[in-house]
Amino acid sequence: MCRIAGIIDRKANSVQILNDVKYMCNAMKHGGPDDEGFYADDTIGLQFGHRRLALIDLTAGGHQPMLAVEEKLAITFNGEIYNFQELKKELSATGYPFRTQSDTEVILAAYHTWGVSSFRKFNGMFAFALHDQSQQLTYLVRDQAGIKPLYYSVQNKQLIFSSEVKAFKKTSYTFVKNKNWKTYFLAFGHIPQPFTTLQDVFSLKPGHYLKWDHEYQAHEIISFKPLPLSAPITSPLQAAENLGKSLENAVQRHLIADAPIGVFLSGGIDSSIITLLANQHTGKNLKSLSINFADPTFSEEQYQKLVTEKTGGIHQTYLVNEQDFNAGFEEIMTAMDQPTNDGINSWFVNKYAKENNLKAVLSGIGADELLGGYPSFSRMGLIRTLQKLPAFILRFCERLPSEKLKRIYYLSYKNPIGEYLFLRGFFIPETIAKILKISKKEIDQLFEAFPIGDEINILQGAERASWLETSIYMQNQLLKDTDFMSMSHGIEVRVPFLDQHFLATINGIASTQRFPAQKKGLLIQAFKKILPEAIWNRPKMGFSFPLQQWFLKGGQISQEQFYKNNEFAVKLIEKFKSGKLHWSKAFALYQVCKED
After folding, report:
1. Are 212 and 138 spatial neighbours (Cβ–Cβ below 8 Å)?
2. Tell me, what DSSP letter sits at residue 358?
3. Do the Cβ atoms of 360 and 454 come closer than 8 Å?
């Protein structure tokens, strides 16, 4: 797990682009504290950089950028390939001469043997740049689930890429702010891909690779997502059995490491299952950690104990209080690569993982999105009903007194993004327009034209909800926040529910079995024998902090100096102070206004 960066610019001075890449890597040192390295091909103006967090092959053999095949191939790689041992065995049989124990070398060997079709063979989380000197091609490649970030900019026959958006500003190249980032952020609570806070800097789509042709100094972006399976499983028993076996195998794969690895246990269904499955493979060597609060409204300690009583390892519980939050607030803000309304909880989890001498932690991210754990799955019928109303009625809903009802306005868009914003949107267009002092028409046009892709068009009901939750909320909010908050502490977070083999299993199950009436019913059925009933037979409780009280008392986001040039923002903050505005909206307002 690492940080990567690079520049391809044939017209640039080689010393300058080396310095630029060094500046980029230094800005991301927190995510790769163990080592650094650089690779150049001056004949084409190429420079790769790498910051390493060592988990597999801790020796110098894992140093990057790594070269292979008479130094005709070079790679800078961020991530883990969980099936690298199986691939290595297959490649060794062809006579490939491996020199290290790293999964990085397996990527090079696989590409050398199978070309770009190798990308589909990798089961893991990855973002890498691979230079093929013989073909005069360079590839940027991102995993199918979008777990690891990879940002790029193509301008004036130049390609610049990085694991973090902040790194682009450290170069001698000019990058200006994306004029729409605040609009996106106030509506979504995050900045949705492919957009970023910088103009002309984009997020590479999950399951895609960018191919750069050095001869023509041109690029194209190509998908390598797996083809959909046919003949889905319709038997409830078979579906539960397949899911159970597949997840158990995924957890076992995700425990592969040459450095200390643990599990984050919140006390909910997903993390409890991951912990219990990890315990089957590690036993007394399992390290698990939990966060709790003095306020019982937010604490899940009683459910965590039900799980740890079944495990044989060492469990650490950390009590987070208001003083801890106040002391860490500035570090939390610094850790953000891009503005977000979430991520504070992830910062603390990884802080304590670091204190627990761990280098990697397993997380339950993905189960809710893939298996129907959110309220959105039962609201798709309501969306279809509301969308039958005339557009002028949907737009009129913006005048209704309830904030939730006001979001019906988003369904007037002839774009599925309106459905997502109805389900999870923060501020409505009228409010955004007043905050940013722009026209509502401009906002409407921006969201109507949002590039969401064609995949969702054939989906309905729960499958459509799963796509929205997975492709927008999970990839842009949960995974992005988890990545930069974990990397700020030099911790890797692994997500077994997004294992490629597990995803194939899930996608091979008929919708009626995958999304039963009971939320995450298929997952519960698969693990009823090991999961305490008190954990699965209770109302869903998200992993949240008492931030409403802490922000009000601490005053970090309510100081009038942040909003002095914006009368409407001042009014909203006054609502927050009187308890009439949720902390997440006030936090979003703070991040937008402090930029002015």
Report:
1. yes
2. -
3. no
Q: Is 102 within 8 Å of 61 (Cβ atoms)?
A: yes
Q: Considering the chain, what is the average pLDDT of its residues? A: 92
Distance from C-alpha of 192 to C-alpha of 184, rounded to nearest angstrom:
7
Position 594 confidence tier, pLDDT thresholds 50, 70, 90 = confident
Q: Phi, psi at residue 82, to the nearest 5°?
A: -75, -20
Q: Using an 8 Å Cβ cutoff, are 143 and 475 in contact?
A: no
Q: How far apart are CA 254 and CA 509, in angstroms?
A: 23
Report residue 283 as tokens: 């036993």
Q: Residue 557 in contact with residue 587, Cβ under 8 Å?
A: yes
Q: What is the largest CA-CA distance in the chain?
A: 70
Residue 267 tokens, joined: 């006390």
Preceding amide of 496 cis, omega within 30: no
Which is nearest to 143 in space by CA: 125, 121, 129? Answer: 125
Closest by Cα among 63, 108, 110 to 86: 110
Q: Say what the pLDDT of residue 312 is.
A: 84
pLDDT digit string (tens) for 377-396? 999 999 999 999 999 999 99
Scanning the structure block, which residue is given the tokens 């903050």?
Answer: 573
In the DSSP assignment, the letter for residue 564 is T
What Cα–Cα distance (Å) separates residue 220 from each residue in 111, 134, 147, 208, 443? 19, 19, 22, 10, 30
Residue type for 166, please? K
Which amino acid is residue 343, in one-letter code?
G
The set of residues, in sequence order, having a beta carbon less than 8 Å from that of 438 and lying 6+ positions away, is 183, 432
pLDDT for position 55: 62
- In 11-93, where does DSSP find H-type helix? 14-27, 84-92
Report the candidate in 218, 23, 44 with the shortest Cα–Cα distance to residue 36: 23
Q: What is the pTM of this model?
A: 0.94
Alpha-carbon distance of 195 to 216, in angstroms, equals: 26
Q: How many CB atoms lie within 10 A of CB 127?
A: 27
